[in-house]
Amino acid sequence: MKKHPIIWFYILAFGISWLGMISAALGSHRIAPFDSPYIQLLSIFYAVGPALAAVIVARTADGKTGVQNLLKGLTRWRVGLVWYIVAVLGSLTLLITAQGLTKLLGFSAIVVTPQVDLSPYFVMGLMVNFFANMCEEIGWRGFALPRLQKRHNALMATLIVGILWSFWHLPIVFLVGNPMAEYPFLWFIIILANAFIYTWIYNSTKGSILLVALFHGSLNVWGLFIPGVSPIAYALVNCVVAIILIAVFGKANLSRQKRVYAG
């Protein structure tokens, strides 16, 4: 693990998470014994896989110091008010723009947005959502991205993270009722384009996992309230934003700040 931390991270992240994802997908098709509530508890590995993999590799490669350095980004909250606005409202802007484009171009929005209410269960769901997103970002942006940015420019590092992050979602395509099952290729493009926005936020906040997780969580939450968004329109919007970020900030750092890389 010391010689090839990135490779080991992805092996563990995929292995741990897919244990939960594949179990959930098989259970959604009522395939025994995966439809059992006890087996479905394995789905927790889906959420914690990237974080657990990052901690294991960081601990093995660099000891306690490695884990401490990995988790520093969770407490990096003094980043300026503007980045909190970007994290919370930037995600909303993406969805509203995609909604408008859907109507303008007459795209079909097949995915039906569920009705939600601000009940204690919904609030608890938001907390679980944020925890899951935090675990993802500890792995993708907290561990993988800074190590890749040490060897590559931000553009190449983001492409690697984005492609593997997209592929990591593959078992969800087989989950009954999941939006990704309808247009898997489009969602892979969306996730890859999203990765450039995440890198921009991460590098601009000097490595704040907290802010990236806030953006990730906000995107999921706002998605519950913004109906009629076509995956095609959403993919177009995210691709345009990714291209703008590359054009404005350059491939070296994708930010006005220098790219963050592991020491």
Which secondary structure elements does this structure contain, and how are they paired or packed?
Blueprint: H1 5-28, H2 37-40, H3 44-71, H4 81-105, H5 120-151, H6 154-168, H7 184-204, H8 209-222, H9 231-249
Helix pairs in contact: 1-3, 3-5, 4-8, 4-9, 5-6, 5-8, 6-7, 7-8, 7-9
Features of the shown structure:
263 residues, mainly alpha, 9 helices, protease, transmembrane, CPBP family intramembrane metalloprotease, hydrolase
Q: How would you describe this protein?
A:
Keywords: Hydrolase, Membrane, Metalloprotease, Protease, Transmembrane, Transmembrane helix. This is CPBP family intramembrane metalloprotease. Residues 121-221 form the CAAX prenyl protease 2/Lysostaphin resistance protein A-like domain. One of its GO terms (molecular function) is metallopeptidase activity. The chain crosses the membrane at residues 7-26, 38-58, 79-98, 118-135, 155-177, 183-201, 208-226, 232-250. α4 (81-105) runs parallel beside α8 (209-222) and α5 packs across α8. Helix content is 69%, strand content 0%. The longest helix is centred in the middle third of the chain and has 32 residues, at 120-151. By secondary structure, the protein is an all-alpha fold. It is built from nine helices and no strands. It has a domain at 77-249. The model has no long low-confidence stretch (mean pLDDT 90). It starts with a helix and ends in a 14-residue tail after the last helix. The radius of gyration is 18 Å and the shape is globular. It has helices spanning 5-28, 37-40, 44-71, 81-105, 120-151, 154-168, 184-204, 209-222, 231-249.
